[in-house]
Amino acid sequence: MSQTDWRKSVVYQIYPKSFNDTTGNGQGDLNGIIDKLDYLAYLGVDYIWLTPIYPSPMNDNGYDISDYYQINEQFGTLDDFKKLLETAHQYGLKVMLDIVFNHTSTDHTWFQQALADPESPYRDYYFFRKGRNGGPPTNWQSKFGGNAWQYEPNSGEYYLHLFDVSQADLNWENEHVRQSLYDIVKYWMSYGVDGFRFDVINLISKDRFEDSDAIGKEYYTDGPRVHDFIHEMNRETFGDREMMTVGEMSSTTIDHCIRYTQPERQELNSVFNFHHLKVDYAEGEKWTESQLDFHKLKEILIEWQLGIYEGGGWNAIFWCNHDQPRIVSRFGDDSTEAMRQRSAKMLAIVLHMLQGTPYIFQGEEIGMTNPHFDKLSQYRDVESLNAYDSLQEAGKTEPEIMRILAQKSRDNARTPMQWDDSAQAGFTEGEPWIEVSDNYKEINVQQAMNDEQSVLQTYRKLIQLRHNYDVVTYGNIEPLYMAHDQLFIYRRNDEHNSWLIIANFSNEAVAIPEDLDTTGQTVIENEPDLLAEGKIPAYGAIVIDQ
Ligand code: GLC
């Protein structure tokens, strides 16, 4: 691929803990990833992104880093990592690392030194503040529940943690902090990594600590110096290299994302936002049982597609990651095998025909579903366990809470990758750290590779289409029939092609709008002769070259 062609690439996200275990300890490892690189090459992706693999107490599965310069023993050694990088490159796969710079683990030596000596220069690496009226400095809420300030008895001060109490927020106002972080980026670049995903990077600029009418978001989301900091990091580290960079942006805006990604601003290549996934949150609240608001989904997707395109920015596009329930169980239908397959393919077609860089989360490409856990003991995730407590305090019954967790928990994405129909889905020879979904005998990679009609084959074809047709990458987007209650219809256009995409998000056949011209060459569809009856079947999807 040439210098600028990163825009045509597709990224595959690996959650190493749940990918492939070669030691029998029930947790995935780097050697396990190496063993599956041939599969990823077969799938045809360009990059793999590994969620954090550094030493960590694993309270938040690695997003609580205690040493940025080493590999977590659970996953392997630095030599294993070098081998992974080398082997991936031999397969033509590039490797992106996940970097968590909004916070460190409280086990990190900086934090430990800050605790040990209130006069230590490391104290200012974090946000230690005096309390107010016998309570915390502000009323901000942690994203994982409870107040965002933790009392520290030795000094009598509180420290800020926007996430778990073991994830202390770093003070980017301190220049030593920033330089230390840039050194980490340069260190991993020196191994030859090809890109980075920056965790919640739009939360790094905070300089006012006041009570909030909401949960504090307005003080730290896209904060006052965030663009300066990211620009500085770009200039001091990856800016002049061919490096794929994506920032995870929490509760951000289109305007900010344009600024994060316009090439001339020299910040990042692309951004993740989450607005399109908050369309099954009742009144904005995640921990509720709720249905997809289809109109809202379309409106948000289109608003972002048009906004970022017109502003000259760049989107990362995705349905799934390690924090989101499985898309086929969420916006599709996993109640029967036929509908699972068809709706997983439909969702893939809709997403991969959008503008931006697509991300595939491990297992999505074979249509893995939520595991439908029904007992608290099956859950591992810190956020889900906190949510259980809060829901209980709010008076919800046990069955209600179990239904909410089964719909919303991050563990839905974290069950082991389903490789084959042998014990534990071929993920481990031991006891997996989290249960394997019980449908692994039907849904697994081996089955999908042997079945020409599998969800996997749709993903392979979509990746090839992106590589082969510029309209998918560079074409504009034209929304059509936005008011339709079941169909998502849009067009992608460039000077050579005009592709019409029609997708049925409902579980019944729907008539094609009378004035819609559907003539042309089929590029891809999720059932043979999809429109033969003049209708589009339940969860049908087609792309037509006109
Ligand atoms: C991001 C990660 C998530 C983690 C959080 C705190 O949202 O994707 O897994 O818990 O940041 O680091």
From TrEMBL:
Keywords, ordered alphabetically: Glycosidase, Hydrolase
InterPro entries: GH, GH13_cat_dom, Glyco_hydro_b, O16G_dom_2, Trehalose_TreC
Keyword Hydrolase recorded: yes
Source organism superkingdom: Bacteria
Enzyme Commission no: 3.2.1.93
Start and end residues of each Glycosyl hydrolase family 13 catalytic domain: 13-414
CDD domains named in the record: AmyAc_SI_OligoGlu_DGase
A UniProt-annotated Pfam family: Alpha-amylase
SUPFAM superfamilies: (Trans)glycosidases, Glycosyl hydrolase domain
Cited PANTHER family: ALPHA-AMYLASE FAMILY MEMBER, TREHALOSE-6-PHOSPHATE HYDROLASE
Protein name: Alpha,alpha-phosphotrehalase
Organism: Staphylococcus auricularis
Protein encoded by which gene: treC
